[in-house]
Amino acid sequence: MELSKIKTLIEFVGRSNIAELTVTEKGTTVRIFRSHSSSLEVPPAAAAREAVQTSTPDLDVRNASAGSRTASVIAVTAPIFGVLHAAPAPGENAFVKLGDEVREGQTLFIIEAMKVFNKISAPRAGRITRLSDMDGSEVEAGEMLAEIA
């Protein structure tokens, strides 16, 4: 299936009220779904050719007061189904380790879905207090990947 068709399908799901769309064409199946805790950004075609698409969990911490925000723990969950990668490439160091201080927007993981690499970024600054050990394994949408305190 062509990237332009996939992009159109993603945009359609984003504009509509449907929760999931599965399309099969010439032996290729594309499954696009939305969960209440994620938003997908579609990259320009050039970036897609570079095999990098950004997708960040949309965790609602804006309603928390400043005091409770710093004391609370935020779960970083998988926004999509795919294969979890803890490092940018095989043999390289992981993006983060348990106990690392991270800044908002810093890449924590990559989830590979349909040969597209989706960066999972930190929703806020803090310390990694819990970290998934599923590197190279399939993860489901909504599955906990890390916690930031």
Describe it for me?
The protein has 149 residues and is α+β, with helices and mostly antiparallel strands. The protein folds into two domains: 1-34, no CATH class; 36-148, OB fold (Dihydrolipoamide Acetyltransferase, E2P). It is 16% helix and 38% strand. The protein has three helices and twelve strands, in the order αβββαβαββββββββ. The strands form three sheets. The chain has a six-stranded mixed sheet, with no helix packed on it. The model is unreliable at 36-70 (pLDDT under 50).
Structural class, from helix and strand content? alpha+beta
Instruction: Compute the number of helices.
Output: 3
| Overall pLDDT metric | 75
Whole-number total of structural domains: 2
State the end-to-end CA separation.
41 Å
Number of beta-strand segments = 12
What's the level 1 CATH class of the largest domain?
Mainly Beta
CATH architectural grouping of the largest domain? Beta Barrel
Share of β-strand residues: 35-45%
CATH superfamily of the largest domain: RNA polymerase II/Efflux pump adaptor protein, barrel-sandwich hybrid domain
CATH topology of the largest domain: OB fold (Dihydrolipoamide Acetyltransferase, E2P)
Strand order of the largest sheet: 3-4-9-8-6-11
Specify the biggest β-sheet.
Answer: 6 strands, mixed
